[in-house]
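Obj: model holo form, ligand = guanosine-5'-diphosphate.
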Amino acid sequence: MVVELVETLLEGIRSGSRAQMARAITLVESTAPRHREAARELLTRLAETPNSAATNPKSAMRVGISGVPGVGKSTFIEALGSQLTAAGHKVGVLAVDPSSVRTGGSVLGDKTRMNQLAADPNAFIRPSPSAGTLGGVARATTQSMAVLEAAGYDVVLVETVGVGQSEVTVAGMVDTFLFLTLARTGDQLQGIKKGILELADVIAVNKADGDREMEARGAARELAGALRLVRGHGEWAPPVVTCSGLTGDRVDEVWDQVQLHRDHLGVEGLARKRAEQQLEFTWALVRDELAQRLRHSKAVRAVQDDVRAAVLAGDLTAPLAADRLLAAYDTE
Ligand code: GDP
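Output (holo structure tokens):
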């Protein structure tokens, strides 16, 4: 059963069948134990394919794209994706949506937001998996990336939202992290700086069109100056450019900067970065699995109501409560 399914999927993926790709991604996203075996087998086999991106840094470009809701991410991705497919690339779009983790709802990756790209035969858009923890979503996204890459997608864009854990997660799975922002000055600038500094490889001040263009250029200059002060000599200082996802103006220049960042890493640097990401991903998988086991532990369930009541009543301190839960878990 598993062998047949995996063979069918592999054949479909390699021949670029969208239906089989979608099926494969559904499989790797699944948290059901009965799907895990097939997913593992599929991913192992994909890793053996000659163009496997896990081992070949010359393969797909993995680019994270982030920014607050409303900054214009989906409009930008639509413009960028269309320019890239017109230039002969195959573009995959994946999403890591923290709101889907908490609420099951989604602010990202909604297909209908990218109509043109969704209808493009050389683009494949996948909304954020809505199940489970951020770690689980990250696992699903990383594995979906492997499916896309095996199917010959040479650019994978991973969209995420906000400044927070989801961005750190996405930065840990891409080669280049692109941050979209809006023209802002002074205090607001201070507010976004820290998060940007640590993660962004390229920054684009978006919506630089019409009346906003001058303001955007000013903001870009200010931000570039601030970044230069903080980054050390010889370090990659994230370039700050302006663009308009709506008109498509200078979106190609943003992409040029992404390419430059990749060149700066070099083949070896990229290979090292990906290897380190694999190691970090390994531990993320372990943490995720442990969290899952903890949640499903019968022994923990057996004591957790008592522990909860005792903590709420002030009869048990948090460290002692934690000890009791862990002791219960260890008996399993
Ligand atoms: P997201 O939430 O970051 O994905 O943002 P959207 O792409 O959905 O865009 C939010 C709003 O901003 C929409 O009304 C867009 O039409 C508008 N918008 C997006 N990009 C631009 C742009 O480059 N220029 C202008 N003027 N408006 C834009």
